[in-house]
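The methods section describes the discrete structure representation at length, but only in general terms. An entry of this sort, consisting of the sequence and the corresponding backbone structure tokens, reads as follows:
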Amino acid sequence: MNDDQIKREADDAKLIDDAFQHLIDTYMASRHRKKVDVITKAFNFARQAHKGVRRLSGEPYILHPIAVAQIACEEVGLGSTSICAALLHDVVEDTDYTTEDIENIFGAKVAQIVDGLTKISGGIFGDKASAQAENFKKLLLTMSDDIRVILIKICDRLHNMRTLQSQPANKQYKIAGETLYIYAPLANRLGLNKIKTELENLSFCYEHPEQYAAIQKKLESTQASRHILFDSFTAPIEKAMKEMGIKYVIKERVKSPYSIWHKMQTKHVTFDEIYDILAVRIIFTPQNREDEINECFKIYVAISKIYQSHPDRLRDWINHPKANGYQALHVTLMSKQGRWIEVQIRSDKMDEVAEQGFAAHWKYKEDGNIEMSEDDGELNDWLHTIKEILDDPQPNAMDFLDAIKLNLFASEIFVFTPKGEIKTMPAGCTALDFAFSIHTFLGSHCIGAKVNHKLVPLSHKLQSGDQVEILTSKSQHVQPSWINFASTAKAKAKIEAILRRDSRETQKRGEETLCAFLEKNDIQYTNTTADQLAAIHNIPKRESFLQALGERTILLGDSDLNVLKGKKAKSQKSKGWRKYVPFIKSDKDKNNEQQQMSLFVVPEKFNRKKPIFITDDNIGQYKFMHCCHPIPGDDILGFIDTKKQIEIHKRSCPVAAKLKTSFGNHILDAKWDMHRKLYFDATIHIEGIDRIGLLNEVTRIISEQMNINMHKVVLSCEEGIFKGTLEVRIHDKDDVKAIIESLKKVDNLQKVTQIM
């Protein structure tokens, strides 16, 4: 071994020892029972198991488990059992040690958690299965046994995101997309607000680096003015708090870059139009723990005397905590500068729960088992719902993911039963969802509902505070149309399960009908015969054909017999075609045969780590998908489809989000290399106050000043307010930005946005 290797090993050893010592120091400062010996034992075991292995970044692999354990201890507040499991979480997957070895050395509880974490990462799946979605099922199954499995997995994902720069771009998009789709909502659902925010920001940073940097720059440039606003706004509040004799801290909360970007995308607003970038957080220490709710409202009354409150923006999360345990009183006040500012009032305990989630509630028994407190009832309800969905999951893994996501993202409303009991439901839920949340029988036989004593249909959307009575009939059965307005995961899962069962029965009836028809005409039943008849009736799948026979929407007759016996059938519908590329050539290139080039097919030994470059010459080789309509300048990625052809999506496209999560190894980094030769379609939405000559001014700016071809204009005006869309042909995103900036200068034009 040469001197450089000796020095490197010595540096590595010091790095590892320092990281572990920091973990022990953090653990010793916590409120957990001090079990340093078992943690040290786990560290030494993992260090030996991963000896000589390095991460892509070049650092010793053992630093990753130490970092995950550090996050579990410091940022989630977990104890020795979780720290040991975090240190050992990759040992079974990456080395020759087994779960039995872990159990013999560290006990059953640590082994169970490590086994849960190993199951999430490993596994062999069929070609059509989505590995990530299947992993997610396993994650939730193990989570039902011990919630620490999922908490450590979130810590693992957070450290992977913090060190994502060493991965190639296609892997970055896959991991970032998966994080936004699964792990950030899970962290949110478990009350880990700080971790959720960091996961979102890191994902945003890797998927849209330029937009992330632009928002960060805006936040920095407006920091001084925010500080002035914060100081002037809080000064009279601080005076009132001191007069009341309350021990408190007032903090400035700034909206995260991802939250700002997400709002800009969904609300079609600019950075300057987002009014809630700044919020104020009052954290107080109650004089009496049992009286902390009353103290919250006393503070609310006191600050409402100083500033005018917004009547529609009082949020009482104290008496009705969110499903992730979050408690606070939110009130929006009008500052002296004429800005609405949200104030969040919470006790120090509520603040700890908001940052650490349910982990802040937990008590650990001597044997290491988790003892849930009464505060965790909502969490147990959620886990019970997950278990119900897992008992009868959809065949399609992506459908399953979507069903779970409905519950992860949903904000809550509070609905009353006829007896006055409160039920927490996701916002946007319907009377049908409410029926299924109470009981499957009630949901499958409901015919309508009474909301606040008024008769409403099953599709009626519920509001917070509604009192709901479900009306049923034994003759009622689940209808296929219900799936269109059911919104909760539980209702959708139950409806689909019942429809699948009914469908199987109908198909069986159809098969019996077909067999009887064929037997009567001395023809033997085979799958080929059934497929042939399905083709005659323009039905692509045999199952759908049998279903139609069972429902008696198709009747078999002489024409079917003629085809089966070899007589020529009339030709059916011609095959459809699909246009993928949403661009047109400039006039000088219109005759260019390059437009007709065949789509690129990915060869066997294709380097997926390298980016693909889209140029004026090869653009026709790729499929530009209409779900997001990408144009040059957009952040994009490539996806290798089942035909080995490459689809191009925006990175922010909802379809791409699913692809990143379910088919991560099919994702490619894609970049533009265009030279303004081709034209692309873009649609711009405008709104404003009508006046004479306004449309003329808009068209003059686009056509004359900017020399841009506008090929469709749709405008409508009602009571002096107009709305409209302009379809223009542009070269790239810079053209769109230039049009929007120019139109914003037009008098009476209030809103100008690009429609995706």
Remarks:
- Confidence is low (pLDDT under 50) at residues 122-129, 362-375, 567-581, 587-596.
- The CA atoms of residues 689 and 721 lie 5 Å apart.
